[in-house]
Amino acid sequence: MLRQPKAVWAVAFASVVAFMGIGLVDPILKPIADNLDASPSQVSLLFTSYMAVMGVAMLVTGVVSSRIGPKRTLLLGLVIIIAGAGLAGMSDTVMGIVGWRALWGLGNALFIATALATIVNSARGSVAQAIILYEAALGLGIAVGPLVGGVLGSISWRGPFFGVSALMAVALVVTVFLLPATPPAARATSIADPLRALKHRGLLGVGITALLYNFGFFTLLAFTPFPLDMSAHQIGLIFFGWGLALAFTSVVVAPRLQHRFGTVRVLVLNLLAFSILLAVMAIGTDYKACLAACVVVAGLFIGINNTLITETVMKAAPVERGVASAAYSFLRFGGAAVAPWLAGTLGENVSVHLPFWVGAGAVLLGAAVLLSARGHLRHIDDDETPDEEALDAAEALTVGSDS
Asked: Which residues, if any, are the signal sequence (predicted)?
């Protein structure tokens, strides 16, 4: 798995930096609220605008990539992220930051969907191995992001925004020089293609499951810093542990569980366990040690879920992988957009415990949805057939590889 074309490593490195942007701002949510006199629900809009725009933009990523080629799409996404992060760091109001985070989300949409398809199509080995490599980049980025955010955030809440902008500039240079030119696809896709892909019951079931799962994921990510009420550096260390746990299970544990018990069974049990953990956080919200420990343990479940559900998406429907990724991401980021705002609002106006109860209920419902769709997902544990391997090779030609 480690012997990959340089194009794969270039995109993987840029993916690490891109995913750092998710956790990088987590330690500074409370400092932003304190410095700009904002409420938790207002600050949570940093996640909502980012995820909402990202989800809608997923419908056009394939349109752009199929017309200008994956490399130019990746570079366009990186340029937009650099601008959005830098301008957010220069803002003096919460709503100004929220607006620039929306621009940042557009850039991330162009980058993430194209990066996943590029790695899967260009990597040597099976689809599962390529996804593990992608999830390793995701896990590393999420693990390092809060730590860097905590260090820079202890200096100024603006630091993490400028840090993302600078790191993305490095990723831009790496991508320019290491990723070979990639031609447009033989067939240009349309905005309707991802929506049509959702007619496949398996893909739709996985997408709805991801939407509900992200209610729990982003409730934990966006709301937990407020009841923790710690410094940016302390929160950064806690979420660094969370990210390390996520990276470990996504790369090491998930494939072994999948091989032994099957994808759907592992996903359902994993979602049930994550739901129980969120319920524990709801009960123990007033105890910082309980919350901190649960955040780290949650990384174990999130890592397993991320790897297996991504692989399931790539195999759930007989459509191009870029289209499947866009359809799935459109749905899942819907949950990611609503959850932070809802959690902040419920925590302010009703009870600090309620956001975690809502997250636990959503994840539990997600497990039920996936269980109901299992009949359409029986094939995902089958080995790749020669026809599928030929399809992989054909798709790789449209992305370009230096292998």
From this structure: none
